[in-house]
Amino acid sequence: MQLLLYILLMPLATYLALAGLYQFILAVASHKTLKVAAIKNSLNNRFLVLVPAYKADAVILHSTVKNIAMKYQYPKSHFDYVVIADQLKQSTIAGLKANGAQVHEVSFEKSTKVKALQSAMAKYGARNYDGVVILDADNVVEHNFLNKANTYLNRGYNVIQGNRKSANSNTTFALLDGLSETANTQLLCKGANALGLSSKLSGSGMVFTIQAFEKAIYDLTAIGGFDKEMELFYTQAWDYIQYADDLVVYDEKIASAGDFSKQRGRWLEAQYSFLKKSIKPALRSLSIGNLDHVHKVAQLALPPRALAPFALLMLVVAGLFINQTVLITSLIGFVALSLSYLLVLPSKTLKKQFIPLLMAFPSLIASAIGALGNIKKSRKGFIHTPHKLVKT
Question: What is the pTM for the complete model shown?
Answer without folding.
Answer: 0.93
